[in-house]
Design brief:
Protein name: Transposase
Organism: Trichonephila clavipes
Number of helices: 5
Helix content: 40-55%
Order of helices and strands: HHHHH
Structural class: mainly alpha
Largest sheet: none
Radius of gyration: 21 Å
Distance between the termini: 54 Å
Strand content: under 5%
Shape: elongated
Length: about 100
């Protein structure tokens, strides 16, 4: 972008991003030599991959299973939203899990 003589505004319009996002990415490139996200950014995982599988399995076997039943089956203190999110990722049709 800079070497081609483009303005931040022009480049942002070309890649369909905000000027702020382009500017931040450019500054990170100059500062660190990369545009990649830092490792460890974002929320920390509350469940392991195995626990994720244990969340999804009962809903795939029985579509009438409740989130509280799934939570008891997994054996980990997780909120109902975590269960719903995992089910939505694994199988969008499993969203019919009951909230009891």
């Amino acid at each position: 972008m800079k070497t081609a003589g483009w303005s931040t505004r022009r480049f942002a319009a070309q890649v369909d991003r905000s000027e702020c996002a382009v500017r931040n990415c450019s500054e990170q490139w100059i500062r660190e030599g990369t545009h990649a996200r830092k490792t460890g950014s974002g929320a920390t995982r509350k469940t392991t991959r195995r626990e994720d599988q244990r969340i999804v399995r009962p809903a795939l076997v029985d579509s009438t299973v409740t989130r509280s039943t799934i939570r008891a089956y997994v054996g980990v203190a997780i909120v109902p939203q975590t269960i719903s999110r995992h089910l939505a990722i694994a199988n969008p049709s499993a969203l019919s899990v009951h909230s009891l």
